[in-house]
Each structure stands twice: as C-alpha cells, then as structure tokens.
Amino acid sequence: MRPLSKVESPRGSSSSDIWKFNSPWSIALQATQCTYSNDPAVIAQYQKDKLLHDRWPGRTVTIMCELAIDIEKHPCKFPLPVLIQHGTKCVAPIELIRKWANSCIGDNITFNEWPDFYHELNNDLGRDAVFAYTLDWIEKSLKLLTSISIEVTPTNL
After folding, report:
1. Which of 4, 62, 117, 156 has its CA 20 to 30 A from that of 12?
2. 3 state SS of 86
C-alpha cells in the first residue's frame, strides 16, 4: 500500500476540491459556525459563503495532530516579543493552549485569555477591546525593542 500525497478518488484519479470535502477521507468538524464568533453578522456571512465548509481533509487533520504532538514535545523559543491571545469559548481547548503558552521559552512572551470570546477574536462583538489591547502591546513591545540589541545569525533565524 502506497501513501497518498493528496486525496485521490476511489477510481485512482486526482479529485476535485469539492470531492475532497465530501470524501469518506474527510472529517466533519465538531463545531458549528457560531462557535467561531458571537457576532450575528459574522455568522450570517459565514453561512452565505459557499467556500466555507464543515469538513477538513483527513491529511489536514493528521498534520494538525502531528504539529500538536511536536510542539508539546519541543517548547518554542522566541527571541522577540510574542503575543498569544485566545478566547475561552473556542474550538481549541483553552487548557491546551495555556499549557503550550506556558511552556514557551523566553522572557518576552505574553499570553492573554479572553473570557467568553470565541475562536476568531477579530470577529467577536468585543473585537474593539482586542484591537486596543493588541495595539497597546505592540507599542510597549516596540519601546522595549528599541533598548535591546538583537544579533541575527543563521542559528537564530
């Protein structure tokens, strides 16, 4: 049995994009569109968008699972300031994101949980607070960076 580099139809020919999302090798998402945002206008736009779907190809799910295992085994090291933000009502469990953020290496990592926010912080009704917080964090980080000299070498790129 050979591994497939892309989803193939049972007939062996390459499949169309539409077939990939309706194939037996695709996985239905457990979330509904309203779990991505609490803004009714955003949800209505999602429901009208024919390019959005409720299925992921099996390969995409495999890649996401492999990545989750890899970042759990190997903490990320960030030489520059990093802002990690996450809603507590989310597709990805907040406990796992919190654990990952706390395992990251560096003195300049900021993790901010947004209670009662969904997956797409920029599409929630409280997005103005998210944007204001992000802008404030960027301004503080830029002030911090002006006093720090960072040497860029091939080993830390």
Report:
1. 62
2. strand
Q: Domain coordinates of the chain in residue numbers?
A: 17-146
CB 88 within 8 A of CB 113: yes
Task: Give the pTM.
Answer: 0.67
Question: What whole-number distance in Å separates Cα of residue 20 and Cα of residue 59?
Answer: 10
CATH architecture type of domain 17-146:
3-Layer(aba) Sandwich (3.40)
Number of H helices, E strands in the chain: 5, 4
What is the C-alpha to C-alpha distance for residues 150 and 117, in angstroms, rounded to an integer? Answer: 35
Task: Say how far residue 101 (Cα) sits from the centre of its chain.
Answer: 13
